[in-house]
Prior knowledge:
It contains 7 helices and no strands. Helices cover 63% and strands 0% of the residues. It has 2 domains: 11-71, 434 Repressor (Amino-terminal Domain) (Orthogonal Bundle), CATH 1.10.260.40; 77-118. It is mostly helical. The protein has helices spanning 11-21, 26-33, 37-44, 52-61, 66-71, 82-89, 95-118. The model has no long low-confidence stretch (mean pLDDT 83). Helix 6 (82-89) runs antiparallel to helix 7. 16% of the residues are buried.
Amino acid sequence: MADDKKPSPTLGELIRQQRELAELPMRQFAAMVGISNPYLSQIERNLREPSERVLDAIAEHLQTSADVLLGQVRTRPEEASDVVRAIGQDGDLTNAQRKALVEMYQTFRKVTRAERKRG
């Protein structure tokens, strides 16, 4: 493979890595966060995306912030624009606001591309 860089971890992988670094068993950490062990397991295996409330609680118990966790997660290729990166780094936005802005931005781009193809 031409790109020897190791890809950034997914959110679930990052949460698991940080939990393990803190030497917290999954059951204990899930109880601390206020979620079930199976739900935490699904988050760590990227089968479910945590709600904003759950992500905030996870981050708090890992002694970090949700923004820091999300900032360490690899941006999807279709979101690699400077605009999307700027949205992701804006500390004045909530996770839900960031997601909505990115979705709107991507929709505007798709519509513009479709109009260019027609015209």
